Amino acid sequence: MKCYTRRAGGTDAAVALGTFDGVHLGHQTVLEVAQTIALCEGMTPCALSFLQHPLSVVGAGAPPLLTLPAEKALLAARSGLEEMALLPFTRDFAALPAEDFARLLVEKYRARHVVVGENYTFGAGGAGDVDLLDRLSKALGFVLHVVPKVRVSGMDVSSTAIRSLLAAGDVRRAAALLGRAYSIGGPIVHGRRIGHRMGFPTVNVALPKGKLLPKYGVYFGYVHIEGARCRAMFNLGVKPTVGSDRPTLEAYLLDFSGDLYGEAARVSFVARIRDEKKFDSIEALSKQIARDVEKAAQF
What we know:
Layout: E1 2-4, E2 13-17, H1 25-41, E3 44-50, H2 55-58, H3 69-78, E4 83-87, H4 91-94, H5 98-107, E5 111-117, H6 130-140, E6 143-147, E7 151-152, E8 155-156, H7 159-167, H8 171-178, E9 182-189, H9 194-197, E10 203-205, E11 217-225, E12 228-237, E13 248-253, E14 264-275, H10 282-297
Parallel strand pairs: 1-4, 2-3, 2-5, 3-4, 5-6
Antiparallel strand pairs: 7-8, 9-10, 9-14, 10-13, 11-12, 11-14, 12-13
């Protein structure tokens, strides 16, 4: 996967356009259409997206990201994309007229086919829509392909819907819209070793800045480390019984023991076990953790 801000010559391209936050099933369809067109036409399949959410510049505030830039590029590559342009979304870029943006696609990115979702907007103030892009495609000499919404179990697949599900702790339905379990990656860091003292040695995964956190609570899922996958029960939150000044992600690995400090890990949220709760004592907390581990082991 090549990431760039400007295509330096090369072949003509089939370009997928979008914010692609989450790279969910709808986004994957747009990317796969671009990849198929490129294969049939002998072109390069690529995507044009942004390093930050556009609302961080033009809105009242951007939502936390479902996918950080590196995650977005990796997931796009899995859809067959050879290149992804991750542009800085600046105020100057936000003010670019729709017609100039369409011209940029042809002149800078060599777009001969352009693929978008049916709700795609572009240009200053989001004034451009698929109807305007279709008219501009005829004037500028590229072919526009508009991909309909994807629906799963009667729900439109969208980044907004996924954020709402994760905020409610419904990681199962969020996974259905994403096409995979929602995950958070980071290095394994030292914690307070409270779990070790209770007989449940855990690993703490550093939480990345700007990434959406599901609803605080206890979950079952997997911890991926160096290509290996371990079943785990983990707590996301502020651990009210022992107190924490910031959220932490602490995992008890069901299938592994050893020193993992400094390793890169990715935690996948598969199922919610319960809400985070403050217990009257460490002993009561320890008994509840034992029940949580037993329940997690049944998955």
